[in-house]
Write the structure tokens for this entry.
Amino acid sequence: MAKATDLLQGTLDMLVLKTLALGPMHGWGISQRIQQVSEEVLVINQGSLYPALYRLEQQGLIKAEWGSSENNRQAKYYELTRTGKKQLAEETENWERLSAAVDRILQTT
Amino acid sequence: MFRKISDALRSLFSKDEVERDMDAELRFHLEMEIEKNVARGMSHAAARREALRSFGGVEKFKEECRDVRSGGSIESLMQDTRYGARILLRNPGFTVVAVLTLALGIGANTAIFSVIYGVLMRPLPYKDGTQLVIVQQQAPLAGVLKLPFSVKEVLDYREQNQTLDAVVEHHTMSFTLLGGIEPQRVQTGVVSANFFDVLGVIPIVGRTFVPGDEEHGSDAVLVLSHKYWQQSHGGDPGIVGRVFQMNNRPHTVIGVLPPIPQYPVEEDVYMPTSQCPTRSSEQFMANRNARMMSVFGRLKRDVPVAQAQADLSTIAANLQKQYADSYPTNRGYGAVVSPLQEELTRRAKPTFLILLGTAGLVLLIACANVANLTLARLMRREREMAIRAALGAGRGRLIRQLLTESTLLSLGGGILGLLFAAGGLHLLVNFAARFTTRAGEIRIDGLVLLFTLLVSVVTGLVFGLVPVFSSDQNLTNALKEGGGRTSASASRQRVRNLLIVAQVAVSFMLLIGAGLMVRSLIKLQSVSPGFDPEKVLAIRVSPNWSKYNTPDKTLALFERLLDKVRSQPGVQSAGLASTYPLNQLGITNGPFNRGFQIEGRPIPEGELAPQADFRSASPGYFETIRLALVKGRTFEEADNEKSLNVAVINQSTARHRWSDEDPIGRRVSFDRGQTWVTIIGVVSDVKQYGLDRDPTDEIYIPLAQNGFANNLLVRTAADPMSITSLMREAIYAVDPETAIDRVQTLEQVRTDAVASPRLTAMLLALFAGLALVITAAGIAGVMALSVSQRRRELGIRLALGATPGRVLSMVMRQGMTFVLMGLSIGVAGALLLGRLMSSLLFAVEPTDPITFVAVSGVLMVVAAAACFVPARRVTSIDPMLALRSE
């Protein structure tokens, strides 16, 4: 697959972690939240959201548990683990460095 | 990590639960999405459609999730395996060819590896076998690299060394054992009392020797080898305590060894040093120069071999100072320590490693071929791959699928190869036995199985990855491409051509190796042995020596024996000799060199006396084996103990010592001039110790003049094997206590002399033949595919007026270009292999032009045929059809 998706994948992981940093949430909630916060710029394809969630769970960055949703349905809630918090801090820092660099390049004329 | 594993396991064993879990989560997501859409004012149905659309294909999503959930491993591996097996079963032709090709390659490697492991690598079957060493004395300046030890020397090294835990001696003799069914000649190991303790051998019945057994005048005891106990005494559990007569004394059996290979010689029985008549005689023990024994030792804990070597060199230097008479400085004298394991396998190593190398090359060719087949299939399967990609399989997953298929193939090949190896192992064990006593330890065991598994998996990955990386195209692009004339296919075709070049190069190397070996064998077999082995039977006769304990008695017995044998029907002539040419025992023991003095040529102080291989023979020996007389006469009945002492020399001695003078009538002495022996004849040289060895200087004396000869040689009118029972009866009629063994025809003896080069040549030829067949199949496959892919282009050429013959020769030319490229690369490899092999060759240069020309010819013809068969189809192309098919 193309490199672009890899970048995007990494980015999506980071966004998911960031979103969960606010508190436990189910998949649908996460997708809605990312859309809202990014002012609809980022539309999350569910086809990639869930694999990302499973991957993060596999890596031990988040943990999942079934619980009752706000409208009393069974939903799977995801929560950040301690490793996940560390990872998020690292990734945020990386991302800031990277985007700052990209900004600088774009601003030089 | 643990979580991952437990998750993967859970997803494997509770698949349904995981699926349910996934479904539930997915359902919840969809419901929420639908509700959101309904809340935005869509109808329920539209909301649902929209939700599904935004999801982008539920099944694809599930496949990806499964990938992630199962750690992308075990479950998908099972899936891939199931799918791969189905695919392979659906293409039986491809599968059979691939598995067979690989089985041949893997089988060859497994068989050779099991030999190499059993012989070269497996630790000795003894307690801490790595610490066992063999000690050898040398007199390099006299050309003696293996000087046996005398009793005095054994004691010196035992007492003076600082680095060895124990020093034990061993020599082997054959004695006649009475008290069984027939008199038996038993190969007897005469050893120090602690010999078995040092090796760490525990008897399975009874005990081994204790220090008391080695004391002078102790009771005679025997330990039996496992093989002898089984073969001659039927594994009788009550054997301990049984008494046999040997050397006119009762010997009591005290124990039986376990079934282990015996070093340095496979013996029938063992006795302590105190019981061997020679070894225990006062005279022998007092004589520093009476050297007969081999010496083994065990290194002290953590002492490296180099340190032991330094230690023993010091002892050797001291001995040389102390006993100048026994160690003349002009011979050089030293002691060498080497690990036993190395010593036992020295001869085998070069041959085995070359065979392993060639087997490895065969496997490489097999891999290339299967990679080629796989590539061809891949070109046909691009559609399938594309569809799977479209259904959501990632590139990694597709590569995994291909690798799973190739690994399945190679494991199939491995299992079949193992069967081939098991079948051929028996042959290889016999082959290895010619080089080393360790051959009995060759078997297919856990480690060999592991090796086979490893080779199979690596093989699978190698030929599985070639096709994958042969194209840098993304597999999913295949959908957009037409059938088979794509850039991906073009790059694959390039890789296939490269594989052909490589296959031809490697085949050429192997064929040259085999060709050189075969040429060398033909040369060896055409060497004249110097005697006529046809219709001659050899029998070793061992009288009960204790009954015939004086030369007169022995001589009388042998004369009666010869008379009796000569009077049997069908016997043309007979004679006795101390040894006969190419006799395996003689080859093992080497020449029996004795110094002699030539009359009128005193030996200066400190000089080495002339040496010659000392033999004795009865009248009739030279005539029986038809050893040609060059000058003078051979022995006659009149040459007995009362007449003039005479000797016969061979041409080599005559040339060497009397160059152009006539040696007949000259006199030599074996006892520093006390008695003189007159030379009465010169016989031609004979290949005594191997067809590839130069003849040695030889001196024969008559059996009747203090000679010793117990090998009976009989020339017969008919097939010599047919009179063996007649011979037995004749010998027993003279004395029933005579042991008879080593009954063989000289034809067999001669065949055995070239057995190991013949087997090496056979194996190499087999490997090279395999390589050639596999390569030819590879060439034909590539050509066939390329012709079928170029139908349109070739059709256009035909339509534009090219004759079928021209098009055919063009296609042939293109195919043969790769063959020629491979051939030229192969020449370099062949030169290298030839250099490595030069130690195995006899009278053939590693750059032998005849071999190179012949092999190139054979390879070109086979390759041309392999090109021609598929290329011929060019002529059947209908230009119109080819054009329309687009």
Notes: Chain A touches chain B at residues 1, 26-28, 31-32, 45-48, 50-51, 54-55, 58, 60, 69, 73-76 (CB under 8 Å).
